[in-house]
Amino acid sequence: MAEAIARHLVETGQVNGVSSKDVFFASAGTWAMDGHAFYAETIEVLKELHITIDGKSKKVSADMVRAATFVLPMTRSHLHAVDGLVSGLQGGPHPRIELILAPHEVDDPVGMGIGAYRRVAEQFLHLLPARLSEMLRV
Fold it and tell me: Which of 92, 90, 70, 89 is nearest to 79 (CA)?
């Protein structure tokens, strides 16, 4: 959901000074299983917001993390899991890994019902534009 919302915010000009041709978003989960459909609640909330999402779930890997400039997990447990994938690896650039809405965690809505997904989507819609502008400032 965060990836789709972030992409939407950039594509609609809601992130100051950032063009969709300047940034690539990708999403993967620390506990996701490759190739599974997105949660029905994610699809429903994004549809309500007129934001499209396509593809299937992906489990985050060390290669994905190493290829990223920024990795923005939702919770501290996600952050530690992602950091653990690359902390012992030598050589090459390491991404900046920090909470998506640092310094605060975002409640993981999995299993919490559609209302929790809507609350998380609202957080992203309201807080991500400034956060992405700050991070992507050249």
Answer: 70
Q: What is the DSSP secondary structure assignment for residue 38, as one 8-state letter?
A: P
Q: What is the CATH number of the domain that holds 116?
A: 3.40.50.2300
Which residue type occupies 103? P
pLDDT higher than threshold 50 for residue 16: yes
pLDDT band at 49 (very low <50, low <70, confident <90, very high): very high
The length of the chain in residues reads 138
Say whether pTM exceeds 0.85.
Answer: yes
Cis, peptide link before residue 103, omega less than 30° from 0: yes
Q: Domain of 30?
A: 2-132
In a domain, 138, yes or no: no
- Spatial separation of the C-alpha atoms in residues 59 and 57, rounded to whole Å: 7
In a domain, 89, yes or no: yes
* Tokens of residue 84, six digits: 């653990």
How many separate domains does the chain show? 1
